[in-house]
Amino acid sequence: MSFENSDDDLGGKKNDVAAISLVSGQAESDTPLYQPLDDRYIRLLKLLPGSGPDPIQIQLQSVPLEDPGPYTALSYVWGDAEIDRRTIYSGDTEQLSVTANLFHALCRFRDVSETRTWWIDALCIDQSSISERNQQVRMMLEIYTKAEETVMWLGEDGDPNLEMLFKVAKARHEYARSKHIIELPGGKTPVYLYSNDLESMKIVANVRDRYASRWVSEDARRHYVSPDSDPKMVTVAYRDLETGEMGETHGGLEYVILALDFDKSRVQRAEKESLPDFCTFLLEAIKPAEFDLTDAQCIGLLHGLDYIASRPYWRRTWVIQEAIVSEKATLVCGKYEIDFDVFCTVYGYGRAIGLDVKNVVLDDVRIFDVRSSLKMLMQVMTQPPDQKPINFMSLLETISHIGFYRARGQSKQMRDLTLGRLMGVFGGQLATDPRDLIFSLVGLLRHFSELPSQLHWAKTSIDYSLDVQAVFKNAAKHIVDSYPKHRIDNQPRRDYILSFVKFDPSKDTSLPSWIPDWTSNRGASNVLFAEDEPQIDTLIEYDANVQDDNLVLSGHIVDTVTMSINIGQDENFYNEVDLYNIVVEQNLGTRYGSQDARFEAFWRAIVADNPIGMRVINGGDFASLKLESLRSWITLCSENCQKLQQIWPHRLKFRRTLGPMIADMKEKNKQGESLPQILLDYVPMETIEELLKQENDPVWSPTEAGVPKQFIITEHGFFGTGLPGVEVGDVVAILAGSGNPWYLRKKGEHYIVIGRGWIHGLMYRDDEYHRRGWRDKVEAIRLR
Asked: Which InterPro entries does the UniProt entry name for this protein (predicted)?
């Protein structure tokens, strides 16, 4: 069995730490650098002072994990050990060889005058001792939990937009913090505004005095001591703050200082506006220059985000645990650094908890509102050739998930955490040792989950004596056994065992088809088969068990595939229009009723009820927004199909071949270029001239049409879609616990899993097929 991974620089802990060596060539265990560790002890690294060309000097010290003292943990990618090695020193003579990435990190964090204490896996663990490595890996979660801070080192900075990227995040978060304080109820605690910009400070003081008695309560005024003795500090509010909250003690009086950089033009504009009260003025006046962005600035930030999100660091599986459990996490890229939680609130895919932070991705770019963001995204896509394409959206998802789980963990909201849920979110990470794709997440279960089944499994699951197949099988069996028999909410689940499976006939693996090969990238199927509100997952009571290599699952075989056509990545809908003509000519899909109903069923199947280009996400009831977007999509398809009939009449079947040529010719004719001879050989000149006079083909709304997929028709006339691999003769099954039908292939006495599907007429509880009833046809389906 082969589990190959070309990204060896991303590896798991065991392989990350294995590459360090002594330049002298002596065996590590023979040197005083690594003495045997007592039980529950770790080593800490003393990074000695130095600067510039000074050699990196370290010392190692053994300490008990129960009381290690203050230290900082480094989270990083080991890097390619074969390309670039650097030398550091322990004592006067002992030399150690490390990768360039770790060397740059040591240079970055070395202080000029003070010794700093770190925990760095590659240097703090004896590479020659397998038993020590196993022991230390099992304590990894505690090591990062006990650290005062975890530094998330991304490597050297290399994008001109990074300075602005970090500056915008810090400024917006600081404004949100200030806004939160200013909007608190009135009380006794003074809030000061501090700035070296005396001109702006004077405006603030004058506007405050203009509102006179209304800006502070009588109760607070009795506690007010002295009015603005320092022109750099202006009293702007009195608020009800709990003792010690966001403040300091000074002369026995609790106070808060807000130190912000003014945007002078904004302060001056706010002074001239007629605002209802001083608080409203203040909230406008202290907005930073980074609060409002131009399109050009947004595009620059997207490039900076792409650079950050595409760093190899985020693909490394151990990063997940290291970042989530750390009390304080600091993101560092070259000379730039920022609190990781602050970064996530401004650039993540989720809203900040507690603070009203203006998010660049959600509020400026409005990435999930396709209509609003399309203009900007088109500008990004048409950047000069020397600018690499931006693909930050999928990469940023990992960063956002880490930030989300950090926030939930800190607020004690992960008591129901399961391995399946973790694998559903982070199962796409990479590791040199495939077993670490599972083992790297076990610590999170032990740290956060309070479910007995999860804790019991987590205590015994890390075992490097098992091979990859055994580890994957154990994890899959645990997910099957611990999957809830009853859904308690209406939220889609990410821990259904088959949702991790990707059919790949070219991959050489002896794993049963129902056991996920977590070394495979699962692709874009989550978008194609979006389960907004799963409905059919409870039609069959969940009953599943593992028998040897078989998964025995309750289910119902619905139908058989009679047509499976690859519609590829066709953004112009050539294949889709041709397919619909075949449907009409062969009178397929009559089960849906009228011609209009069949038309609707076909186009809804094409996008799996997910026409994201039609959906405006601006609040409101999600179900009604989805219904509205579907109606808009069907209307658009109908209008476009009618227009195509007018443009191409009897030649519509040639559109797939001639359409791109005609569009290209129209453009080239403006430049006076001749027509291609290959076209003249097959199409009369008068036909070409007629087509050139016609309108251009209609523009279709952005959808997931670019995702490779199969169009499916079943024996009983259902329309559906599936990912590549579905063949004629495969069956459609409804399986207990899943919100989607599945394509299965009969092999003797069992089935193999081909993939998840979307079948129009089987997706919702009120579909006619489900209303008719088929409970007597439920059977135990054996998957292998």
From this structure: HET, HetReg/Transcr_Mod
